[in-house]
Design brief:
Elements: H1 2-7, H2 11-23, H3 38-41, H4 43-50, H5 55-73, H6 78-81, H7 83-93, H8 97-107, H9 113-134, H10 154-184, H11 189-209, E1 214-225, H12 232-244, E2 253-256, H13 269-282, E3 285-293, E4 300-308, E5 311-318, H14 332-335, H15 338-341, E6 358-359, E7 365-370, H16 377-385, E8 390-395, H17 405-420, E9 424-428, E10 433-436, E11 442-447, E12 453-463, H18 467-471, H19 474-500
Parallel strand pairs: 1-2, 2-3, 7-8, 8-9
Antiparallel strand pairs: 1-12, 3-4, 4-5, 6-7, 9-10, 10-11
Helix pairs in contact: 2-4, 2-5, 4-5, 4-10, 5-7, 5-8, 8-9, 9-10, 9-11, 9-19, 10-11, 10-17, 16-17
């Protein structure tokens, strides 16, 4: 152990270990989906950071660990953004620098039981603050929140209905902190064990007392996944053929993926008529997604548009939260060079202004979102509040077809369904498409990236309001209060230490009336 500690005295070696430790939790997410490592995946990073010799080194451990986490989580962007992916990871890694300082402050050396107990609350709160900041869509949005790694764990989904993915992130980090203490701080094992028992108690209480969605009816939803095809015309022809195959299958709604139509339907009434004819043949409204320059206003929009038997219904949702670099370049005057080293957007898409709940007929109300908007829990929460019966995400990850991105994206819908108590349809252009029930349970099988097909899902509809929809992001608010209280306590402690510090020992000043006593006088 001493040899390893000596080896870590090299700054670059320690930074490398921090980056590798920060990358470890990504294995809990799809595609590896080793969800069971999440409760211990942060432990190596915590153990390293608590041994930092100075607070500055702890900040570096946090920074490089965060950079490793962000690079591993978004490594599939490399073919798209090239070296800029590394730049983004290093910049966003700075968010974890204060967290590294907190780890050393509360777990460094031989922490008392009180300091350890505080760490079980403060460190998860600090992590939530990081996730809150990077949830701003300008920084890439809440992709890869550590709580979302538990998307297929039934007790975790029940917890999500109480406090959203935020509560899951808090508890996952708290468990990691407790395990790190059990390993490295023997004298503080009691509060660590108490933290683990408290986590188990919270999970059990959520399992027993949180309301379950009250299923009162069902809807048959069809997903059309075109697959990888070159050109909007070939894509449309394939979607038309796949949709026609749904005739006679008694579906209530048909959903096409993101960018399924490459022309503005107001400017191409022939395409609108073809979709309306499909609606008449199948007996269901069709939700398409248009990625095109609008004819009635300037700019390119990504829009979910509902088409019925008589043509355009008038229901339209323009995407509000755009993908940085993929659909617009932040601060283009400064970062526009990204277009020369990767496939960043050559022209910024335009933003919509409000969310929309659409009436798809027969009393079925749907709440559409586009692409990575499904990563934002507040958007699905607002749609549930506005009366949506089904949440619908239209996506396309064709650029990252052979990476972890499609499965990561598909898994998010399970959490959004569990948080809101509303089923969610994740329909993609090229896979992975997936459907989840109102408790976040998977319905049917995923449509992988290797198929071009249609599928019909018997989706349970539920009413009622989950605690998360009613009370919102309360774990985040609690975390902010914890950090504010910590800042006050630490500030007061610093003031007391300053007051107790002994006055500097300085010789008394001599006046003009004093003269030194000479020997012999």
């Amino acid at each position: 152990m001493k040899t390893f500690d000596h080896w870590l005295t090299s700054s670059w070696r320690r930074s490398t270990v921090a980056a590798l430790s920060g990358a470890l939790p990504v294995l809990a997410f799809p595609a590896p989906s080793l969800w069971w490592i999440a409760p211990v995946a942060l432990v190596p990073w915590i153990l390293l950071t608590r041994t930092a010799p100075t607070w500055r080194r702890a900040a570096y451990d946090g920074w490089w660990g965060g950079a490793g986490f962000m690079l591993a989580m978004h490594h599939w962007l490399m073919p798209f953004l090239h070296v800029f992916t590394l730049v983004i990871a290093v910049l966003l890694g700075v968010l974890w620098a204060p967290w590294g300082v907190l780890v050393r402050r509360f777990l460094g050396g031989g922490p008392s039981r009180g300091r350890t107990a505080a760490a079980l609350v403060v460190l998860p709160s600090g992590w939530l603050a990081i996730e809150l900041v990077r949830s701003w869509q300008g920084l890439g949005g809440p992709w890869g929140m550590i709580g979302s790694s538990q998307w297929q764990v039934e007790p975790a989904l029940r917890l999500a209905s109480v406090g959203g993915v935020w509560l899951l992130s808090f508890l996952v980090v708290a468990v990691n902190v407790a395990v790190a203490v059990l390993i490295a701080v023997r004298e503080s094992r009691v509060p660590a064990l108490a933290g683990l028992v408290a986590t188990a108690a919270v999970t059990s209480a959520a399992w027993v007392w949180s309301p379950r969605p009250d299923v009162d009816s069902r809807a048959r939803i069809a997903v059309v996944q075109a697959g990888v095809l070159d050109g909007p015309d070939r894509r449309f022809d394939r979607e038309e053929r796949l949709t026609r195959e749904l005739a006679g299958r008694d579906v209530d709604l048909i959903v096409w993926g993101e960018s399924s139509v490459g022309y503005d339907l107001e400017d191409r009434p022939d395409l609108a008529r073809r979709i309306a004819a499909l609606s008449r043949e199948t007996g269901a409204d069709i939700l398409v997604n248009v990625d095109a320059r609008r004819s009635d206003r300037p700019g390119i929009y990504k829009s979910s548009i509902l088409v019925g038997a008589d043509g355009l219904t008038g229901d339209r949702y323009d995407k509000m939260r755009l993908v940085p670099f993929g659909e617009y370049v932040p601060a283009r005057s400064l970062l526009g060079w990204a277009t020369s080293v990767g496939k960043a957007a050559g022209e910024d898409r335009r933003r919509g202004t409000e969310q929309v709940v659409m009436n798809a007929g027969q009393g079925l109300r749907i709440g559409p979102m586009v692409c990575f908007e499904t990563a934002f829990p507040d958007m699905t929460r607002h749609l549930a509040e506005d009366g949506a019966d089904i949440l619908v995400g239209q996506s396309s990850t064709s650029t990252f077809q052979h990476s972890w991105a499609p499965e990561q994206h598909a898994s998010l819908a399970a959490l959004r369904a569990a948080e809101t108590g509303r089923p969610m349809v994740h329909a993609t252009l090229t896979g992975v498409s997936a459907v989840y029930g109102p408790s976040g349970e998977r319905i049917g099988s995923w449509l992988g990236t290797d198929v071009s097909t249609n599928a019909v899902y018997d989706v349970p509809l539920a009413d009622g309001v989950t605690p998360y929809v009613r009370f919102g992001d309360w774990p985040v608010h609690l975390a902010v209060l914890v950090l504010a209280a910590m800042a006050l306590v630490e500030g007061g402690r610093a003031v007391r230490l300053r007051r107790r510090a002994p006055a500097p020992q300085t010789p008394p000043a001599r006046t003009v009336h004093e003269s030194p006593v000479r020997p012999g006088r």
